[in-house]
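Question (not urgent): is this output format expected?
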Amino acid sequence: MSQQDLAEACNITRKTLYAIEKGAPGTTVATVFAVLWKLGLLGTAAGLADPDADEHGKVLEAARRPKRVRHTVANVNDF
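Got this back:
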């Protein structure tokens, strides 16, 4: 499949397809998913939103959690 055929199948221009290839920030997620779907790669995109597969996100979340602090209690044995 040529790039022109892919662009026509996704109902986008060849320039938009080139922008997706370059990683331009102006392309929409829907357009990227349309291209992935047409290429048969949409199944691999399902892992992008999987929180269990995001090790970096887990580390960041653990860093944001409050640390457990145990306050010392004065041991008063005045009987």
